[in-house]
Design brief:
The structure holds 2 protein chains of 2 kinds. By secondary structure, chain A is of the alpha+beta class. Chain A is built from 3 helices and 7 strands, in the order H-E-E-H-E-E-E-E-E-H. The longest helix of chain A is centred in the last third of the chain and has 23 residues. In chain B, the strands form 5 sheets. Chain B has a 16-stranded antiparallel barrel with strand order 1-2-3-6-7-8-10-12-13-18-19-20-21-24-25-26. In chain B, strands 11-14-17 form a 3-stranded mixed β-sheet, with no helix packed on it. Chain B has a two-stranded antiparallel sheet with strand order 4-5. The chains are: A alpha+beta, B mainly beta. Strand 2 of chain A pairs antiparallel with strand 1 of chain B, so a sheet runs across the interface.
Chain lengths: 182, 486
């Protein structure tokens, strides 16, 4: 018994020490074993959440899923990608944003340094998961000719990919912020 | 150096005690979950025909009978087919405070409280499907400090943090639901699953995970669950939860089914595990220890010693320490990759087959388990095998008069008459389960499973209603059906 007490004390001190470490994470309740017969069934009729909510609002959806509170319920696309796309394209005026169809269209935008050139972007969000292939960006470019008319011009090939990368980086950042705040 | 130390301490203090990140407070949610299953079973087992008479009543004669053994004994024969259903309803409460503290409670209600039929009177009986509280506990958790659970719940070793117990196929293979179809002829059922340690009311600490490690510890003052004292009348008796010595305690090394009456006291569990992955292979290693003290026998009258070497009178109120403390180690490991999960678990120490306290001088338990499962899309198949040696009957009996004055245990060694049933041999138990399930829809499984289980104890009659000494008990069960969780 005395050995056990010492061991328990050592474990408790270890726990406090561990709590100070950067590598610490809280263990979710579903990571512990459960000998109930319900626990032996894989998956649930009620989906990912544990049981049917009869009181209160379900805020336990996995991060980035449709019902994730981090992005607000009601989105048809991944919440982090949606917010990251809005953030990334916010330097241009917004013409249209459809959170259910997953389309964001900006208005024409001229960089202050290049008044004879303007850009427009369309972003398509394709799914509810945070994946690199779930975001597509198309960029359009026009240049003013001598008569003052705007003429379509090709965009340098890396521009759309660079914007997609920025969106994904921002989405990752939002997700990690959201997880850290849980 | 000193400055660095001071600075480090300050940072640690701030991390532990300082205000945490502002977090969104969440109003509590209440959820209902549950489980239903319905199986067909085909059963081949020993002990299905009583050739010699047994002494349960042939009928219930009405008012006042109260299950008194009938004067005319009776026999019975059991068939091989049956249907069986079961259900559970769980209530989950979860909330989150503004400082990041999460809290909640889990209340589980099951409907198989009573294994045997209870016919008290012709019009007054209790059904097998009586509702009962299973696990019921509250928890409070802080992300950096871990969580406390308080209530009727498995301990860290008794189910929360085990590894290598592969039961994710069929109904769990050898630890599955075949037992619901098998009669207990000398306990030809498995009891040594981690969850078999019981949900006695306990307080549990579960640590956060750091570098893949987490650990837990728990304490329970005795074996009992739920509310109230357990006393059956107004006086102190062995049925009271807090009894630590009582006349007849030596009968409760094996827990009495239903009333949570067992010799175990001051149970503590310690467990630790590491989880991580190497090159796409998920690994988990867990180990732990359970210890306890035990209730003691208490003489109820002056007993005159019959032991010529220790003559005299054993005074009324003498305590005898008949039981070993519970003293069991377990270690397990499992690996998961490409849909396969393989695991092994080893348990060793002073306990009987029912996770109960053994008599002093009895053998320890020694049990191995291995398992393998494979999941591909909606299909899961698997197999597991368990082998263990245990104390059979017992190598001694509680007999204070024969033990004599001065004996601290009151135990005397058992002897075996030639040709008679004998309790001195070690008991071997082994079995395997093979099963699979098909996910028809999320939470809805079709199941098929085969389980074979054997008990062997040389020269001990494991089937008393058959003539002769039957050293074996067998059970083979095929079951198939549907189960659903919500």
């Amino acid at each position: 018994m005395r050995h056990a007490s010492r061991l328990a004390l050592a474990l408790a001190l270890l726990g406090l020490a561990a709590a100070a470490c950067g590598e610490t994470r809280s263990v979710r309740n579903d990571e512990y074993g459960d000998d109930s017969r319900r626990a032996r069934v894989q998956g649930r009729l009620s989906g990912a959440s544990d049981g049917l909510v009869i009181f209160g609002v379900d805020r336990s959806r996995p991060p980035g899923s449709a019902g994730d509170p981090g992005g607000g319920p009601g989105l048809g696309v991944n919440a982090y990608l949606w917010r990251a796309t809005l953030d990334t394209l916010s330097f241009m005026p917004l013409a249209s944003a459809d959170p259910f169809g997953g389309v964001i269209i900006t208005d024409w935008y001229s960089p202050p340094a290049e008044p004879g050139e303007r850009f427009r972007a369309t972003a398509y969000l394709l799914g509810r998961t945070l994946r690199s292939d779930n975001v597509r960006v198309s960029v359009f470019r026009q240049v003013r000719d001598r008569n003052g008319n705007w003429v379509d011009q090709p965009v340098s090939p890396g521009t759309a990919a660079a914007l997609e990368d920025s969106i994904l980086a921002r989405a990752r950042e939002l997700r990690s912020q959201s997880l850290a705040a849980r | 150096m000193r400055k660095i130390l001071l600075g480090t301490t300050a940072v640690v203090g701030a991390a532990l005690l300082g205000p945490s990140l502002a977090q969104a407070q969440e109003a509590p949610t209440v959820r209902i979950g549950g489980f239903f299953r319905s199986y067909y079973g085909y059963i081949q087992q020993t002990g299905t025909e009583s050739v010699t008479n047994n002494t349960i009543p042939t009928n219930v004669s009405g008012v006042g009978a109260n299950q008194a053994p009938d004067a005319s004994n009776h026999r019975a024969r059991l068939g091989k087919h049956d249907f069986s259903t079961n259900a559970e309803v769980h209530v989950f409460v979860n909330g989150k405070a503004a400082n990041g503290l999460t809290y909640g409670a889990v209340i589980e209600i099951n409907f198989d409280q009573q294994e045997g039929r209870s016919i008290d009177q012709r019009r007054g009986s209790t059904g097998k499907t009586t509702a009962a509280l299973d696990e019921a506990y509250a928890f409070i958790a802080m992300p950096q400090l871990g969580q406390i659970r308080f209530g009727d719940e498995d301990g860290p070793l008794g189910g929360l943090m085990n590894a290598g117990v592969i039961t994710n196929f069929g109904t769990g293979g050898i630890y599955g639901e075949w037992e619901d179809f098998v009669t207990r002829q000398r306990a030809a059922r498995t009891q040594t699953a981690p969850g078999g340690l019981g949900d006695s009311t306990k307080i549990i600490y579960l640590s956060p995970q750091f570098f893949g490690f987490d650990f837990g510890a728990s304490f329970a003052p005795n074996y009992n669950e739920g509310a109230d004292t357990g006393c059956t009348n107004d006086v102190a008796s062995g049925w009271c939860d807090r009894a630590y010595a009582f006349t007849g305690a030596s009968n409760f090394g094996i827990a009495a089914a239903g009333p949570n009456q067992a010799a175990r006291r001051n149970e503590y569990q310690l467990a630790a595990r590491w989880r991580g992955s190497f090159g796409g292979v998920g690994l988990a290693i867990a180990g732990g220890y359970i210890g306890s003290t035990a209730k003691r026998e208490l003489t109820a009258a002056n007993i005159t010693s019959t032991n010529p070497n220790a003559p005299g009178v054993i005074a009324s109120g003498t305590q005898h320490r008949v039981f070993n403390n519970l003293n069991v180690w377990t270690i397990g490991a499992q690996a998961t990759a490409y849909g396969f999960t393989v695991g092994a678990n080893w348990t060793y120490g002073d306990a009987n087959f029912f996770w109960g306290n053994t008599f002093r001088g009895d053998r320890p338990m020694n049990q191995y388990m291995v398992g393998l499962s494979y999941t591909n899309g909606p299909f899961t198949i698997g197999a597991n095998y368990v082998f263990g040696t245990f104390e059979g009957g017992s190598r001694s009996a509680y007999n204070p008069a024969a033990a004599g004055v001065g004996s601290t245990t009151g135990l005397v060694p058992n002897t075996c008459a030639p040709g008679a049933s004998c309790t001195l041999a070690s008991m071997r138990r082994w079995g395997y389960g093979i099963g699979g399930n098909y996910r028809l829809a999320p939470g809805l499984d079709l199941i098929a499973e085969w389980v074979s289980y054997r008990v062997f104890e040389r020269n001990r009659d494991l089937d008393p209603v058959q003539p002769g000494i039957q050293s074996r008990a067998n059970a083979d069960v095929f079951l198939t059906g549907v189960r659903l969780a919500f």
